[in-house]
Amino acid sequence: MKFGKEICSCGNFSEKIFKIAGIFSDSTGDILWTTNDEQIAEKITNRNADDLKIKRTKDKESENEREIIKGIMDHEHKFFGYKRDKKFIVVDAEY
After folding, report:
1. CA–CA separation, 72 vs 33, rounded Å?
2. Contact yes or no for 38/91 (Cβ under 8 A)
3. Above 50 in pLDDT, residue 9?
4. What is d(CA 70, CA 21) in angstroms, rounded to the nearest whole number?
5. What is the model's pTM?
6. Over the Cα atoms of the chain, what is R_g?
7. Cα separations (Å) of 47 from 32, 38, 63?
8. Burial of 28 (0-12, 13-18, 19+ CB in 10 A)
9. Can you give the pLDDT at residue 60?
10. Which of the residue ranges 24-28, 29-33, 44-48, 71-75 has the most confident prediction, judged by mean pLDDT?
11. Among candidates 89, 91, 47, 50, which has minimal Cα distance to 68?
12. What Cα–Cα distance (Å) separates residue 43 from each residue in 1, 16, 24, 89, 95?
């Protein structure tokens, strides 16, 4: 799972948005997924995007990301979205 700030591909915005990405994996293969909306990233992580954007030292950032990933992996989620190229774009999620 990866966390990052990127410009939304759906428009020309001056401010970066928080998004998360990962891989769905089973015995048949892997599918890359990503969010392109801060509200969806907030739903999946159960945290406020502004809190996640705060600049931290590398050690604290790594610790924070591990904690968030553990929280995501410990709960079942339903992702709704569409496939573009080789990536699944998450447009909604249920926690």
Report:
1. 14
2. no
3. no
4. 14
5. 0.68
6. 13
7. 22, 10, 15
8. exposed
9. 59
10. 29-33
11. 47
12. 15, 18, 18, 15, 7
